[in-house]
């Protein structure tokens, strides 16, 4: 957000929560706290909280380094250390940060991990990433094998396979690190707070079905998912954050306000879009403004669901702790097969009454980017809505060509505008094999 | 210059390589035009060009701006991207659904124009200038072949010498290497055009069976490129009148 745009109460609270967390991490070693590095997809934050373990999420550190314009230097440091240009830039940003003293995004020093908890194996890069960190930090890894939803569903066998690993492999490793036994009642309490926060987050998402949408469900949305995707889910603090956020959004709806943008509330909602793919973090506000200044609001996005498809009914459950954590890991967005992802996007386009959809295909993330051109064609065919496609990256500033990307975004919105402001001519909008926007030759 | 109606609008296309401006009448005929290499200070350049055109027609006119420098055209009343403007300009000439290939200085665009004249879909080269006018300019400069003589050279080629690199800088090195190996200039040039055309064809993807292809942009003035593109797409490629001015024309029509 711009410096001169007043922050909402929830934003101020979130900023303080993050600062406090990094402060706790900086004192962890002197206070004898144990630290676990883990990932966003499939994260088992409630287990860590119940055992008083402090989580560090390298992906979140990388994206925050990107937003703070530090990632370019870190990536260069990693490349000098021998990591190829083709390696995921989250990994290189993290390795570069480590090589530069391991000072986190807020400037405080990060403690070394006592354990690496690999919570999701659907991303091959995650495995190699923690192999590298294991060599750097000389600490143990515990791995949760998460089967891919190749048939588009979570079977009982898959659920039990993951739940048994959590109970028989992950919990003992965490107990050993924490130096104490897991208190199941504390875990249930954490899961209750999670479900409460998830209920409120769903109400925030679904507020975007209104016209105008009181939220931007992608650029604004990535701020909203911060606490629940990272270190805070399962805490009372996170539940309070989501209650406050939900109430703020309800107030915006009551006032008839449009989505918040970097320049203040959206004056007029001209276009409603659904977005697939992660954002670019190094030019985040520039990228956002390419849409918001043209009157485009994102009403739903898949990136904001990578940490849980709560709006599709999933909840953490104190009644079935391990099974619900298993479902969480199995159900993360990138663990869905392509038909399920297309179905979800189609559902969003229809339920949120979107005018079109846009794909930001990032170089670093194969879990997201594979199949996106196919998804684009299929969605155009099913919905008759035009799709836009650009390529950038997560945190490597070299892969965000502002002029080129802005040209594509504006051309797409001008195309959408023309399409919305006159009836279709017979023969238009037919599902033929079309040139694809932004595809590299 | 074509047509003789009263002037209704000016269109300016500030591209990466050349700056184009047109004055049009209500029927879309180009009454006056300017084409110049783009100056680093585009605001000063477009101010001068606009002053000259206004003086020539003797009145103030609405101004449409497009191209990478579109946001710095003084007094522009309509600011649109090249995709939108090339489509508008092309449709004013053909008045039917077509697939437009615009090969400009630093990007190549494939635009599917619907039967109503609007952009139905588009594709652009990404991240690299290979497959654009700049690519040709670099190689022709290295071979010391003037742009207006290139078609004659290609026509004289006895065979095509493949140029495989997909990067402008590497292609330049490859061409130098081929010259050093004694390959004839004409064959290298033909191979170069074929390589470029294949890249554009790949960008176009699978075209509908009945798609008509038209071409705009400065590269369309190179007949060898038009032929190579037709061969790569296996279609007839028609060049729009005044291909370099199509974007400026679309900008003027949008402002009128």
Give a summary of the structure in a few sentences.
The complex is a heterodimer of chains A (441) and B (256). Chain A is an alpha/beta fold.
List keywords for this structure.
heterodimer; A: 441 residues; alpha/beta; Rossmann fold; 4-stranded parallel beta sheet; 48% helix; globular; disordered C terminus; B: 256 residues; Nucleotidyltransferase, domain 5; 8 helices; 39% helix
What topology does this entry show?
The complex is a heterodimer of chains A (441) and B (256).
Chain A: H1 9-27, E1 35-38, H2 45-50, E2 54-56, H3 58-67, H4 71-80, H5 89-99, E3 115-118, H6 124-137, E4 141-143, H7 156-178, H8 184-206, H9 221-224, H10 226-229, H11 236-255, E5 260-261, E6 264-265, E7 271-276, H12 284-292, E8 296-301, H13 321-330, H14 338-351, E9 356-362, H15 366-369, H16 372-383, E10 387-392, H17 402-420
Parallel strand pairs in A: 1-2, 1-3, 3-4, 7-8, 7-9, 9-10
Antiparallel strand pairs in A: 5-6
Helix pairs in contact in A: 1-11, 3-5, 4-5, 7-13, 8-11, 12-17, 14-16
Chain B: E1 7-14, E2 18-25, E3 30-37, H1 42-57, E4 63-66, E5 78-79, H2 82-94, E6 98-103, E7 108-113, E8 119-124, H3 133-143, H4 150-155, H5 168-180, H6 185-204, E9 213-216, H7 223-233, E10 237-239, H8 246-255
Parallel strand pairs in B: 1-4, 4-5, 6-9, 9-10
Antiparallel strand pairs in B: 1-2, 2-3, 6-7, 7-8
